């Protein structure tokens, strides 16, 4: 792509708003040296239509679950919880083909762009065919995700998942989990297959479904295969109290406690959910350098519980956000519910704010998610910084939530007073992928998704 010059009246740089910023983009779609204080756009520069935020990483996604969002909100028995939801979700997981996966993911990824995400980490465990049969090419489902990301224009981190058993005391998988089956060798091969694609904006790491779904021996083997390679390692951990109880029965320790002691996580690791954590576990994660990924929309939808947000913030643990099952698909809503959950639990306001250095709740949560998200995706630099991919969100200051709001409070209003994100434009690697909320391939992507949904749910 040709080099270009962009100019913004404001841009979020280094954790604060800077005024009159020149934003050069090089031929590789990366930011050059950013220059605040450039009073007017110089010749050849394109003025952007509003203040600029960097794109955010969605650090935890199961794309196929987008096809299930909104379809589990009824109860047919006396009780409904995460485990009954999971059984119903498996019925969808068993049926989706590679072509359907691509259509679902492309639709989702456009939604995520509209929600302010420009990179997504795909925690991917649909390795085999709909009935668990081997596919002609082992990376077919990974390739479907990569094709969807290319079609949408979003960045993608594929995380093939190690998944070998149904629970701590189970020797193998349930029948309805058979297409998830994997070994350390398969996960490592899928990692290499994605890397070999050489597709711009696509990278890879590895994931472990959970301590209940992978044995210590298998996890150790996978870590040996990965070695010291600088790539992200993700794991679901301590999402449910039953998982905590089962782990204590099987190992004598709580999940995060066991993980930190036995696996020695480092800065490559991302602990997804980490809902039920003691202060000692939080301190252990902080010492290790690992990060966490919180998914407030899904955790609320599934009744997981509330994590100790003040504890994680005090410990300085990197904290990214994700949309997981995609009942919510924009980061302002995720940050809003991250804070609101704490307010409801503690009966306080502005729980995440830190008056001594960052009195604005939205800014503290946003900056934490921004900094941690790039690491969660395995990207060395992220945000409006020299050398990072040139991703940007151009705010629409004429959106209802932002009209008349002082410039210093625009992020506050976006998170706590807006019904939905308000972007004039979304850029990925310097290219406009959304303009006034519309994608160039919107109609085609929507119609493919509609056809898939009609096929999947015809019997309903």
Kindly list the characteristics that best describe this protein.
Urease, subunit C, domain 1, four-stranded antiparallel sheet, 16 strands, 460 residues, nine-stranded parallel sheet, globular, 18% strand, alpha/beta, 35% helix, 14 helices
Helix content: 25-40%
Please tally the helical runs, counting DSSP H or I stretches of 4 or more residues.
14
Report the structural category.
Answer: alpha/beta
Give me the CATH fold name of the domain at 4-54 and 383-442.
Urease, subunit C, domain 1
Q: Report the sheet-strand fraction.
A: 15-25%
Rg calc: 21 Å
CATH superfamily membership of the domain at 4-54 and 383-442, which one?
Answer: Urease, subunit C, domain 1
Provide the residue-averaged pLDDT: 96
Task: Describe what you observe in this structure.
The termini are far apart. The chain has a domain at about 5-55 and about 385-440: Urease, subunit C, domain 1, CATH 2.30.40. Strands 5, 6, 7, 8, 9, 10, 11, 12 and 13 form a nine-stranded parallel sheet that branches. A four-stranded antiparallel sheet has the order 4-14-15-16, covered by helices on one side. Strands 2-1-3 form a three-stranded mixed sheet, with no helix packed on it. The chain contains 14 helices and 16 strands. With about 450 residues, the protein is α/β, with parallel strands linked by helices.
